[in-house]
Amino acid sequence: MKEKPIVMKYRDELDKSYGIAGMALGLSVFDAEDLFTAVTLDAEGKGCIQFTPEFYFAGNPRLSPRGAWQYILGHYRISVGLAVANALCRRMVLDNDKVDEQLRDQLFNVACADGQDACQLERDEVQPIFDEVFSNMMRLFGDSRVRKAMDVFADALQQRRTLSHIDVSDILQQLNLV
Predict the structure, then answer these.
(1) I need a surface site. Which of 45, 131, 135, 168 has the fewest CB within 10 A?
(2) Torsion over CA of 63, 65, 71 and 77, rounded to 10 degrees?
(3) How many helices (H) does the chain have, and how many strands (E)?
(4) Three-state SS for 37?
(5) Which residues are paired to 164 by β-bridges?
(6) Fold for domain 13-174?
(7) Could you read off the pLDDT of 80-129 as tens digits, one per residue?
């Protein structure tokens, strides 16, 4: 029986390329394509996506407390989406395997920890956000057209190592994913 990947731990470069491919598509799905400059195989952890300065909230005195919280919550949703897209693309596309409860639980626990850190969200407040993201990503990566496109994207990433924002957009457009 093959080893199942743990959330954000890569078995090898192929596994990593599919995780990054899933996140690149996730950025598009979550309307966050303007928040990154490139994706790369040559970085570790969250550095695989090079975000713009706008992604990192440093505070804005013109925003009300509610506006600032909404901004942070929006970026939290994107982060949850990226983690789920990474794991599901690897499991469903690369491994051609089903998503089991163990993976779902791992992803939910990561979402809860991040939700507590980023927005002081409790588990019951994370649940609807996570469920919506998870459900959307399950449908997305369950689509055979998307699966084939992720194969092409991961191959392009392995060949070129780094894809700029424009490269990612071009590839996703050529694959009819945006």
Answers:
(1) 45
(2) 180
(3) 6, 3
(4) strand
(5) 38
(6) Methane Monooxygenase Hydroxylase; Chain G, domain 1 (1.20.58)
(7) 999 999 999 999 999 999 999 999 999 999 999 999 998 899 999 999 99
Kindly report the pTM of this predicted structure: 0.91
pLDDT tens digits, residue range 67-86?
888 888 998 999 999 999 99
The total of other beta-carbon atoms located within 10 Å of residue 154's CB is: 26
Structure token digits, residue 44:
């570790």
What CA–CA distances, in Å, run from 97 to 65, 110, 136?
A: 43, 21, 17
The secondary structure element, H or E, covering residue 149 is helix 144-160
Angle between helical axes of 144-160 and 165-174 (0-180°, round to 10): 140
Sheet of 162-164: strand order equals: 49-51, 36-40, 162-164
C-beta of residue 167 within 8 angstroms of C-beta of residue 160: yes
41 and 20 in contact (C-beta within 8 Å)? yes
Is residue 5 scored above 90 in pLDDT? Answer: no
